[in-house]
Amino acid sequence: MPQNAFHTVDVFATAKYAGNQLAVFEGADALGSDQMAALANEMNYSETTFIEGGSPDDGYDVRIFTPDGEIPFAGHPTLGTAAVLREHFGAGDGVTLNLGVGPISVEVRSDGSDSEQYWMTQNAPTFGAELDRETLAEVLSLDAADFDADWPIQVVSTGLPAVMIPLCDRDALARSEVFTPAYRSFFDDVGVENLFLFCPDPRDDANDFAARMYAPGHGVAEDPATGSANGCFAGYLARHRYFGDDEIEIAVEQGYEMGRPSHLHLEAEDRGDEVAVRVGGRVEFVSTGRLV
Fold it and tell me: What NCBIfam families does its record include (predicted)?
């Protein structure tokens, strides 16, 4: 695997230059952790990945960094890195990434058109504390009435915890804005940095939900497409029988407020002892470069 080469891709993209940007570095076994952190900060995407080695049989060892440091798992870096491995290293239609949370499998599916979708199976979600609307209203510069009281505000994790926050409509979603002092106090109390807001009021009728994701604690003010949080969301919907069923198959739009429209496809099945979660979307290749 060549050293110093990197690729950029757009994940969960509706077209090139949409979705969530990702930089993928090859031959990263020659880089130290400090160098990886510096490169992630230099790229200044929500995440950057580093392929340290591996094989189709044993999986590929990959590390994920935000501009603020290393994290054990994130969704769009998993799919984007798998796409790079398939496109440039012949990894095949099924590839395993060995991440901080353990091995994550990715498969390629046809969506019935000329394009393909990359799908990952995430770890089974864990369901944590339920939180009150008043606290989140202050954090998000909203009123308590903007939250959908029929569904809980809850911490969910498939490897990277996020708070699931149901809102009534897209107007509330558009008005949401992180109030930094309240966010810092919230993080000190709860210890979760990622805030995932959703409502059943999408712009595109082909989608079921509109969403936004704030992660300032990771150095990401807002994320245009968040595979990990959407995996948590899929598990949340199935566990709480949002549609009256223990299985869901839906589409979510995200990133429109940032000018980077993204579409994510979610599947989940509540099997009682655990919830099976899959997240998929398109990957667009944008550029290839080399460090100097």
Answer: PhzF_family
Give SS3 for 220: strand
The two most distant CA atoms of the chain are separated, in Å, by 55
Cα 204 to Cα 65, 158, 165, 237, 254: the distances in Å are 32, 27, 21, 20, 11
Nearest-angstrom CA–CA distance, 166 and 151: 7
- For the chain, which domains are there? 5-122+282-290 (3.10.310.10), 126-279 (3.10.310.10)
| pLDDT digit string (tens) for the chain, length 292 residues | 566 899 999 999 989 999 999 999 999 999 999 999 999 999 999 999 999 999 999 999 999 999 999 999 999 999 999 999 999 888 888 999 999 999 999 999 986 666 799 999 999 999 999 999 999 999 999 999 999 999 999 999 999 999 999 999 999 999 999 999 999 999 999 999 999 999 999 999 999 999 999 999 988 999 999 999 999 999 999 999 999 999 999 999 999 999 999 999 999 999 999 999 999 999 999 999 998 8
The alpha helices in 176-291, defined as continuous H runs, are: 180-190, 227-239
| Residues 210/241, Cβ–Cβ less than 8 Å | no
CA pair distance 292, 289, nearest whole angstrom: 10
Q: Does the pTM of the predicted model rise above 0.90? A: yes
Choose among 144, 158, 146, 154: nearest CA to 74: 158
Active site amino acids: 47
CB 143: neighbour CB atoms within 10 A? 12
